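A note from the maintainers: we've had questions about how concatenated examples are separated. There is no special marker in the raw files; a new sequence line simply starts the next protein. For clarity in this README we add a label.
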Amino acid sequence: MPLLALCLIISGMIAPVAADSGYETIYSDWADNGDTVTANGCYVKFTIQNGSSNVYVSVKSPSYPDKEVTVSPGNWYYYYNLLRIYIVEIDQAKNKVLVDIARPSGSQGDTSSSGTKLSCDVPGQLALGGDIVSFPILIQNNNDEDKTYTLSSSNSAKWDVTFTYGDKGIYKVYVPKHQSKVVNLMIQTTGSTSVGEKKVIAYVDSMSIDLYVYITSVNQTVDVSTKVTSKISSIGDKIFYDIRLKNLQSKENIYKLSVTGLPENWYFRYKEDSTSFDEMAEVIVPASGEKNLVLEIVPPYSVDVGDYNFIAVITSPDGTQITKDLTLRLKSGVGMSVTTSKLAYEAKPGESFNIDVYVSNTGKGAALTNVYLETSAPTGWIVQVSPNQTNSIKAGDIQTFRVNVVPPGNIVASDYEVSIKVKSDQAEKEKDFRVTIKTESYIPYIGGAMILLVVVGLIFMFRKYGRR
């Protein structure tokens, strides 16, 4: 016999499906990949391996050693004398497994005069979706010794379930011998739960009791959802949260829109979309329809870096408030401003002139880093920048760059363009400058020289030929 099979027979047992009247089903449903089901005081986790036709089953119990086995569809796995786990089928497309978990018959609360007895006066209750339902469970310790019981539960509706005793949340309870205590099983149903009966199993050690909640209708008029509830933005950025309202009723409803918990001097506005200028105080949603909104948060420019929490509130016509907790992390923002004394200059061929460029960090908190200038000028022009680069400009500080420009000596008089681009790790800006080149006119000098030559020529001719 293979060693693996021998080990499985010793600690538990895997067997093909066969009739077994000694067990009663306590959980029969689909389980998502990675789900953990609580059954008969044990915790059973199902894992579907990619591409595998088997299911990896992990079983934990406070009273027995943990076990991990692989079970194929159509086979059982017996976990000591506590559970029989049957894998019905695997849905690879939906990443789910259909399972049936059973316990030995008669393991539910003992009704005899010895052992432990579980009972509930109201094991089935009616509720609206979203209500909190309370089941009082009597634990009767008929043993000849005091006992501390471990409490747990399971339900296919994935509701939040807790045990309470008085005003305390508990997961264990102490009951002296031949005495009883009442603990409350608190169930928080959800507004999205479908109408119908839902089963909840309460476990007290290895014993259990079945409880039922019948959802008669949804208790919520609107379902509120957001694409994201937490954002990271720089100071000065626009901040938007996308919110979707779904009317769960068969009639048109008007919902009021608000926000609570904003710090002082912060503002909010609901809009149709991020480009809209119109603010909304309420919105009309058709019967069973949906509406998409944008919530814009506007902090003051003087806001500090840090984490902020606030709540989007949607109020239904009956006054019910549906809330969404939102968070915002603001990080340091930077801004760049580039100024000069003028944008137009005059120069002569071959003569240099300076352009002073003032770069300031108009942001809050963070510095502009690795700031330098890139220049563009006509061919033959000489452009030098001082300093070549600065490592950082702190928020509120200004750095002056001097750009020395020398046009060629043989350039034609005209208008020319010089471009200066300021670059950094965070931002960049560009400015264009007009440079007018003016040259001196030599025509008057040439004309004067020609007139002088004519006069000198006439005098020479007069002296030479005038006496004849």
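[label: protein 2]
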Amino acid sequence: MTASVREDLERDMEWPDALECIHGLNDRDQTVFRALQQADEWLTVDDVADRLGCERSTAHRSISRLVEFDLVVRRQVNYDHGGYYYVYRPQAPEAIAREMRRLLNSWYATVGRLVQEFEDRYGREPDGSEDRPTPPDP
């Protein structure tokens, strides 16, 4: 279940929580991202699966999500006699942070507009009276 903004602000959050909140990453996605982040070289799906002790299909699903969210870069490596395979590494931290800020600012603007719509609809009338139904007399 999604936590409310209030709940998120009241808990002790760390940077993986921001990835979860902004991109919807699950625990496995975050674990795969950290494994790629800690590696000194480009990794294959098999490398990631071996390092994490998980199935290749599980690692592939998470890597695909990370590529989709532009958190990870995919590069094709060609064999000399035909065929190829892919290797992966995280985007530059600055690029990830920039995109997270862009998404956060977009979300903030959207929620700000919705809050304004709420206030416009249910707030006070221009004459200062409240635009609320009067409860019936008991």
